[in-house]
Amino acid sequence: MRKEGALKATFQQVQQPVCCYGCLAVLNAIQQNGLIDDYLQAKQLNESTSFE
């Protein structure tokens, strides 16, 4: 992800850097459709899964 000129998404009232317009669009769609809790739950599940 580029550090200079990175795109910014406001997610849960916090600005976050995103790598591309696709990720920006996905985060906006998640918020606009009321899917924040589902997204965060899925993200937590993915981060806790080990592939070892």
What would you say this structure looks like, in words?
- The structure is a single chain.
- The protein starts with 6 loop residues before the first strand and ends with a helix.
- The protein is 48% helix and 19% strand.
- The longest helix has 13 residues.
- By secondary structure, the protein is of the alpha+beta class.
- The chain has two helices and two strands, in the order ββαα.
- It has one domain.
- The model has no long low-confidence stretch (mean pLDDT 85).
- It has a two-stranded antiparallel ribbon with strand order 1-2.
- A hairpin with a 2-residue loop joins strand 1 and strand 2.
- It comes from Undibacterium flavidum.
- InterPro entries: ATPase-cat-bd (IPR021993).
- Pfam families: ATPase-cat_bd (PF12156).
Strand content: 15-25%
CA-based gyration radius: 13 Å
Distance between the termini: 26 Å
Question: What is the typical, i.e. mean, pLDDT?
Answer: 85
> What count of domains describes the coordinates?
1
Uncertain regions spanning at least 5 consecutive residues: none
* Helix-and-strand structural type: alpha+beta
Largest sheet properties: 2 strands, antiparallel
Order of helices and strands: EEHH
Helix content: 40-55%
Instruction: List the quaternary state of the chains.
Output: single chain
Q: Could you give the count of β-strands?
A: 2
Write the layout of secondary structure elements.
Layout: E1 7-11, E2 14-18, H1 21-32, H2 36-48
